[in-house]
Amino acid sequence: MIIDTPFFVFLILIGVIFLAAELLLKYLHLNPELTRKATHILSGLVVFLMPSYLNLGQVVVLGVSFAIVLYFAEKLGVLPSVTRVNRSSFGSVLFPLGLVISGLLFWNVNIIAFKLSVLVLALSDSMAGLAGHKFGKRKFLTGTIEGSFVFFVVTSAVFVSFGLILNNISLLNLFSFVVFSLILTVVEAKATRGLDNLLLPPTAAFLASLLF
């Protein structure tokens, strides 16, 4: 069954996040880049909780539905808290689709890998974007050194946290965490027009599946 109480709860939760972002942009005049990334972080944390309450089919329906909504929001110029950016980007639309792809590939195979990929996109990518926007001065591929450094640090922290929680820490794994974080940092830095949102989740999940 696709539509049930947990499905509606998560639908409402994500809707509240978008509504709050719109209100903050309209009444507090926050930078759209801040509301956009805050929406990504909070939505990602909600998705992180979904495996405990929803099945894969429900998550796919939610992800594709929000991708469609965001596509038309981009075209119509609505939801500026998420769609208003100073560059050509499909990032908002690709954000849920990247998570859907990761889910389709890893949900039934390695749910830990899927959940790690959610945090990489929600936390690492969003914080890197904020850092690059605020402090970025030196170019690195399509981004900035400052943004990529933050991405690497947060991604490393995500890997280490999962290793600690799963009691899967060794010198070899710590080395792997660093190498995998570097790989993901390059993927994020090379991708343009928001394609990192599509590429990061399945790539992160694949790398995580090699360890957990």
Short overview:
The chain is mainly α. The chain has helices at 5-28, 32-49, 56-76, 80-83, 91-106, 111-135, 145-165, 171-190, 196-209; strands spanning 139-140, 143-144. Helix content is 77%, strand content 2%.
Quaternary structure of the protein? single chain
Largest sheet: 2 strands, antiparallel
Strand order of the biggest β-sheet: 1-2
Mean pLDDT: 91
Unreliable stretches, pLDDT < 50, 5 or more residues? none
How far apart are the termini? Answer: 30 Å
Overall geometry: globular
Keywords:
212 residues; mainly alpha; two-stranded antiparallel ribbon; 2% strand
What does this molecule look like?
By secondary structure, this protein is mainly alpha-helical. It has one domain. The protein contains nine helices and two strands; from the N terminus they run ααααααββααα. It has helices at residues 5-28, 32-49, 56-76, 80-83, 91-106, 111-135, 145-165, 171-190, 196-209; strands at 139-140, 143-144. Strands 1-2 form a two-stranded antiparallel ribbon. Strand 1 (139-140) and strand 2 form a beta hairpin. Helix 6 (111-135) crosses helix 9 and helix 7 (145-165) packs antiparallel against helix 8.
